[in-house]
Amino acid sequence: MVSVEGGGAPVSSGIEIRRLVKWYGSQPALRGIDLAVAPEEILALFGSNGAGKTTLLRILAGRVRPTSGTIRVAGHMLDRDGNEVRRALGVLAHGHQLYEALTARENLAYATAMLGLDRPGERLAQALSRVGLESAADSRVRTFSSGMKRRLALAKLMLREPKVILLDEPFASLDLQATKVLEEFLMASKAAGATTILATHNLTMGYGVADRVAILRQGRLVFDGRREETSLEAFRALFALHGEREEGG
Q: Which of 181, 183, 84 shows the shortest CA–CA distance to 128?
């Protein structure tokens, strides 16, 4: 195990974060994060509510401006090349980010149009099939259960082949079948060269798909190590040592 103030070597086409700081008024959310995640690498980021996980992902997605620091995503500077960064990203946020007045099919059709994807009909049909929503394709999203909405959000992510994937609590509201679909998507994306950061409370699920595991505590990166260097039991003990509480497994 290695306790760090940042991890990984600099990478040119994955994610590079240097001295990242974010304040909300007088409250610090991130306190000098240094982190590099390479292509074909999955980093599972753990921490309690308020640790800064969601803030970090929202900054990487261009939805929140950092107070200071430099960020490079897929070879592009976030503050200068925001459009290129957004084109490279696939994001599964904690909320489902769907239009509830539209049907499942209409939500995906709108996403393919906004992204300018080729073969939109084929991509849409494949995504619905993979998440098991073919029979509900023409139902309005407002009638869906939370699990169905999460499946549709996953289908939206699967429409494309992102270079960088950001996932916030990706296992929430997913049943075993949908969880398997997500895991298969992550492994296929990794094989295609994607860089992934997933933030979760679920140690078992996050550890199971990760190449690296890290702990964020009160806005600081307090651990970053290769998964093979620590067992799940040892990592769970380390997580508890930092005063964090595991949820969902």
A: 181
